[in-house]
Design brief:
The chain is an alpha/beta fold and 259 residues long. Helix content is 40%, strand content 23%.
Length: 259
């Protein structure tokens, strides 16, 4: 039996996977990137190996992807985030047509064709609006843990609006709503709706077709996923672990490209 690895080092998290010859996931790890992206990639890879019960010598080849893919010392090759998310999502959902990926510092919509081939994509990497960082800032303003923001939003009873697409101005709107005595749950839902609206704009530009799959850390926010589905008028599928889809794609490329 032979094994391959994929490491995705983004701005906020470093994710790694180990797969076998059939592309089955044997182990994975998700760690904060922190200040040293090179070290974060190494730690994530070590964690994935440990989870799979393997050593570096058991792995045939490792590919990297993500914001810091060129800094991953264990990688013998690298692929773009767009290609890896398409490859990984296609492996999980062979009929995927549209991928929505929201990471820590960027968001993207990818149109996928036969075999996971990228047909078109649109990316927002110039502004934190509509990204994980946007949600992080809003959760801070609401003094709510980021991973509980969707639970808070689920308690909403009044429709509020966050009109600004700029993170700084949106935070000011949140602070203003708090000062007006608006309920945190309603503000949390307004924040979720703002990020969903912006993301739908990206998806519409690239063209929505076929099964819609959402990847990235924000896919763990159920409120955002449900709002996306509502606005798009189509179901939005989320993998069991949406943060490792890019790393999975990198591992599959490592397996396929050189035998």
């Amino acid at each position: 039996m032979r094994f391959w690895g994929g490491i995705d080092v983004g701005s906020l998290s470093a994710d790694a996977v180990i797969i076998d010859e059939e592309g089955r996931l044997l182990g994975h790890a998700i760690l904060p990137t922190g200040r040293d992206s090179r070290e974060a990639g190494s730690r994530a890879y070590a964690g994935a190996l440990e989870a799979a019960g393997l050593t570096p010598g058991d792995v045939v080849r490792v590919y990297s992807t993500g914001y810091s893919r060129a800094r991953v010392r264990e990688a013998e090759g690298a692929k773009t985030e767009i290609a890896c998310h398409a490859r990984g999502a296609h492996a999980l959902y062979p009929d995927v047509g549209t991928i929505i990926d929201i990471g820590g510092q960027d968001s993207k919509a990818i149109q996928v064709g036969k075999g996971g081939r990228v047909l078109n994509f649109v990316m927002n990497d110039k502004c934190a609006a509509g990204t994980g960082r946007f949600l992080e800032v809003m959760a801070g303003a609401l003094e709510t843990p980021l991973d509980h923001l969707d639970e808070l939003a689920a308690q909403s009873t009044e429709t509020l609006t966050i009109s600004s697409i700029c993170t700084v101005f949106a935070e000011s709107e949140v602070v203003s709503l708090i000062s007006q005595g608006k309920k945190p749950a309603d503000i949390a839902m307004a924040v979720s709706r703002a990020i969903a609206r912006r993301t739908v704009g990206l998806a519409t530009r690239v063209g929505v077709s076929g099964r819609v799959v959402m990847t990235g850390g924000v896919a763990k926010n159920r409120a955002v996923v449900d709002l996306l589905a509502e606005i798009l008028g189509a179901p939005v599928d989320v993998p069991d672990e949406p943060q490792i889809v890019g790393a999975l794609g990198a591992a599959l490329f490592a397996r396929d490209e050189r035998g």
